[in-house]
């Protein structure tokens, strides 16, 4: 193809990449290319990366995705153009230089900052008389009136043909620019040695190896923090940042399920059960994003207003720091938090457990722990994260109160202690019998309070007190009427309103995070 400079009368189709860092199954790119020459742009927004839920590990992953995306677009004819600054300032610059015929992007359900930024972009487009075409990217629907028929619409959307990448005409006289590093953006040091690599090839490898090799024992292993690290798909960061599309993941998993149905049941039974569970979690991925799409305040306010002010808004700084650093004195909790810090990933049950520990046992308001976890997760997806944080903190009003026993979870999910020994080496001298409760060991005086802290709370007493406080709020007809309205708007059509479930005097199971109540959306 011959490169050409755009005359002032030849406007471009501006394709704005956000959380859709790929060219395969990218309807925005394909549709824009049909209308004219495409200028593919990614705007590095320093103010976004200063937000309390963003981090250096996330940017390092995104940067690798952008390097890969630049190559993908270059192979089509026009490499990715990168600019740094306020997005409307960047668009002004490009409009002056090229003329913008239309702005194209996928719909984004991001954090509060991106929500407000998109409103400014809409104002800019109206002011300039430029059409902004936003196209649905996954199963989340804009301006949804209710959840009736949502699952059927999800299936239909995912079954549509994937969009092939178009050829692009190269643009002249436009610098691609370098992609800044975390240091260039002034981000805090964020050492994460076990972080997954960004980019489409890495995402495809994780998907294919899961469907063909690693995923056989997904159903039985996914609750284990040790086995789950291998048996879970680990594609969540590639979905969160768009290196893979949900449609291609769903279609590839369906194809694998069809193949398994042709195999003898005896040899394929385990595989079939695991992929059935996996397919369910793909639905729930979008189900949770839909919650934030429909109710942006979820990131900032208790979903059920009755919980406002239940916990102090300004959390106990010492408890919060101990929890964040993995120094609570509860070995399994500490192992999970240290593993997360080093890898950027945690399986769904452990995400639920560490959140519940912060919210119930430590009685911390969900916002600050939620921000810390958001920064730690390489796969941070606001639409999944904030509804989950509220659900595990008991502030939705429509989900069963699940106060996980952090010691029992250690015995159940790490029975031989491998996970705790890996991440809490201070306990190497503790015998296996007492590893999850080292204060009971014969040599506890040599370790506890010296190289490893005593528990900062009595977890049984703290759970009892929290349960009483939570259930005190849930009593009464006014609470139930408000919960019913929340359920109608946000709840699965397969679940009810568990406001009158378990008596506060009875000990909850704490071992099960059922699909009906929603997994953490991290397949």
Short structural summary:
The protein has 523 residues and is mainly α. It has 22 helices and 5 strands.
Describe the protein in words:
The N terminus and C terminus are likely disordered. The protein is globular, with a radius of gyration of 24 Å. Strand 4, helix 5 and strand 5 form a beta-alpha-beta unit. It is mostly helical. The two termini are 41 Å apart. Helix 11 runs antiparallel to helix 12, helix 12 crosses helix 17 and helix 15 packs across helix 17. A five-stranded parallel beta sheet has the order 3-2-1-4-5, sandwiched between helices. The chain is built from 22 helices and five strands. 47% of the residues are buried.
């Amino acid at each position: 193809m011959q490169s050409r400079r755009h005359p002032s009368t030849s406007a471009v189709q501006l394709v704005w990449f956000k959380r859709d860092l790929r060219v395969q199954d990218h309807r925005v790119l394909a549709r824009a290319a049909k209308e004219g020459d495409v200028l593919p742009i990614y705007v590095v927004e320093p103010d976004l990366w200063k937000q309390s839920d963003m981090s250096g590990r996330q940017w390092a992953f995104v940067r690798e995705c952008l390097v890969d995306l630049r190559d993908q677009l270059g192979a089509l004819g026009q490499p990715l153009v990168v600019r740094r600054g306020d997005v409307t300032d960047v668009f002004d610059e490009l409009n002056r230089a090229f003329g913008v015929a239309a702005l194209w992007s996928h719909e984004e359900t991001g954090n509060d900052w991106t929500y407000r930024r998109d409103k400014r972009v809409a104002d800019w487009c109206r002011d300039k008389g430029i059409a902004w075409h936003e196209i649905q990217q996954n199963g989340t629907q804009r301006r949804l009136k209710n959840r009736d028929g949502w699952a059927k619409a999800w299936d239909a959307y995912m079954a549509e043909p994937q969009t092939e990448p178009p050829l692009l005409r190269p643009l002249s006289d436009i610098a691609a620019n370098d992609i800044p590093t975390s240091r260039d953006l002034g981000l805090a040091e964020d050492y994460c040695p076990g972080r997954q690599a960004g980019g489409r090839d890495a995402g495809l490898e994780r998907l294919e190896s899961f469907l063909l090799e690693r995923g056989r024992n997904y159903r039985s292993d996914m609750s284990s923090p040790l086995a789950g690290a291998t048996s879970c798909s680990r594609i969540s960061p590639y979905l969160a940042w768009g290196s893979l599309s949900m449609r291609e993941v769903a279609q590839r998993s369906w194809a694998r399920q069809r193949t398994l149905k042709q195999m003898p049941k005896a040899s394929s039974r385990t595989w079939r059960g695991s992929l059935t569970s996996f397919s369910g979690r793909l639905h729930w991925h979008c189900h949770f994003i839909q919650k934030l799409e429909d109710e942006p305040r979820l990131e900032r306010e208790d979903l059920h207003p009755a919980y406002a002010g239940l916990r102090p808004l300004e959390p106990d700084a010492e408890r919060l720091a101990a929890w964040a650093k993995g120094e609570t004195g509860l070995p399994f909790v500490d192992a999970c938090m240290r593993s997360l810090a080093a890898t950027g990933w945690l399986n769904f049950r452990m995400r639920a457990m560490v959140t519940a520990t912060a919210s119930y046992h430590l009685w911390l308001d969900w916002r600050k722990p939620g921000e810390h976890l958001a920064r730690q997760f390489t796969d941070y997806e606001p639409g999944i994260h904030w509804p989950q944080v509220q659900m595990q903190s008991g502030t939705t009003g429509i989900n069963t109160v699940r106060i996980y026993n952090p010691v029992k979870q250690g015995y159940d999910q790490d029975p031989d202690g491998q996970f705790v020994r890996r991440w809490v080496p201070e306990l190497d001298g503790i015998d296996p019998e007492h590893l999850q409760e080292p204060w009971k060991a014969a040599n506890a005086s040599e370790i506890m309070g010296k190289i490893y802290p005593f528990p900062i709370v009595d977890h049984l007493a703290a759970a009892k007190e929290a349960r009483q406080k939570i259930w005190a709020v849930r009593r009464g007809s006014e609470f139930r009427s408000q919960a019913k309205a929340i359920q109608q708007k946000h709840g699965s059509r397969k679940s009810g309103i568990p406001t009158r479930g378990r008596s506060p005097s009875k000990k909850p199971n704490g071992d099960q995070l059922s699909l009906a109540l929603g997994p953490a959306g991290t397949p």
